[in-house]
Amino acid sequence: MKKPTLFVLAAGMGSRYGGLKQMDGLGPNGETIMDYSIFDAIRSGFGKAVFVIRHSFEQDFQEKIIRKYKDKISVELVFQELDYLPERFVLNPERVKPWGTNHAVLMGKDVIKEPFAVINADDFYGRESFEILASYLMQLNGKENDYCMIGYRVGNTLSESGAVARGICEKDAGDFLTSVVERTHIERIDGKIMYKDEQNRLTETDENTPVSMNMWGFTPDYFEHSSQIFVDFLNKNQSDNKAEFFIPLAVNELIQAKTSRVKVLDTPAKWFGVTYADDRPLVVEKINDLIQKGIYPVKLF
Known about the structure:
Blueprint: E1 5-9, H1 33-44, E2 48-53, H2 58-64, E3 74-79, H3 101-106, E4 116-120, E5 123-124, H4 127-137, E6 146-153, E7 164-171, E8 177-189, E9 192-196, E10 202-205, E11 210-218, H5 221-237, H6 247-256, E12 261-266, E13 272-273, H7 280-292
Parallel strand pairs: 1-2, 1-4, 2-3, 6-12
Antiparallel strand pairs: 4-11, 5-13, 6-11, 7-8, 7-11, 8-9, 9-10
Helix pairs in contact: 1-4
């Protein structure tokens, strides 16, 4: 049985945080959030880690991140750049915004040939989530169009420093995803969890509403589906320099067409991350607490 691959989206610059937050040392020995994800992935049964980054910080990434994983797990790098587009499409020189998470995923198509997970570099997902995801992915060897995602309870994913963006999910009686809608403004107000809808109105949602934290599980056929959907996306959005090709966009299209199905896997884990610079001391505190409880060693690698 092939071990699944962990695909880490690390090309973003972290504009709200104010720097390359995926390289920020938050653990007691300078561990990054990525280090904790890799540690959890290894002990959960993942066999390879693929990182998508940008050429501009490759040397730093190699020296500060990749060298730590030598002899621990197989590692590959792929690159996301604005001009990495399908044939016949030309980059508008005025575009500066990245193409989005599913464009980043497409960069892995030549090196990933087994079931794989997708995560953000700057999100702390928790040991339980990696164990749940690895176990499910190991059942998908040889299958197609059978995907999954870790469904976090929205109340476990909020920042104390400001509003966050989350993909709010709906699922059927069999726990298969029926839709995921990106909500770019979710926060707790007077004890209630509220998000802004398309008309900018505040709408309440339940504490346990499943949300996507960009922790997905796919089989390799997803690359071909995404390539086709990206061409359609570009045809419709060539003139919009801010349009982004998000994973939920492609997933929704595949679900609505009944091409693929996505199992929503509930997790009790509490997400945390450095969405804002003010989040940093809280993350450091939470990591130290997990070390005190024996969930992580003081030194990971």
